[in-house]
């Protein structure tokens, strides 16, 4: 009965989003989404998400300086940089390499860089999380990824690359929306929205249990907490936050 209800409501939602499905069928939606819609949407969502998670992020990134190299230098790699929402939390003088698979965030990214000149920006690489070959192995002290593992092609492959580029003792910081408890109405809602949400929002998946991928990766230490972010009327309230040490 539950499965039939999910299929019915999925069909209703798809009907409402029929123009987007049609544009996708014609090959128009994806390039428009990557170049125009998603950068615009992400900047607006990031602003709301920042207001809701500011205290959690401040606490999360508080110990970033502890992972500086013995020389005192702190090299950060951010995957899925997007609009640069995390720059404000980085310690003064740290060196940041930004990566994103989508190169169409230039305007909002430049605005964030101009607001956060306490950070040294080394380079911007167009790269997927699963393929960071431009970054040498063991070359960074910390990797940061927020709201990115929901849309990579392979969470497992991305975490493998994170471990490769981190030096021994380095850390991976994360904040991700995840699947709700399977017995909850929130998960029912996520299952209904999933196909249309993924199409509209550039491959973003609502039902990933990312904490399981982190638990199965070869980190020596995992500090992970499940939290709920107050984003009413959206299917992305359940989150995980924390850091893992190589």
UniProtKB/TrEMBL annotation:
Gene Ontology MF terms: S-adenosylmethionine-dependent methyltransferase activity
Listed InterPro entries: Methyltransf_11, SAM-dependent_MTases_sf, Thiol_S-MT
SUPFAM superfamilies named among the record's database cross-references: S-adenosyl-L-methionine-dependent methyltransferases
Listed transmembrane segments: 7-29
Superkingdom of origin organism: Eukaryota
CDD domains: AdoMet_MTases
Residue ranges of domain Methyltransferase type in the record: 77-174
Keywords: Membrane, Transmembrane, Transmembrane helix
Protein name: MET7A protein
Organism: Anhinga anhinga (Anhinga)
Gene from which the chain derives: Mettl7a_0
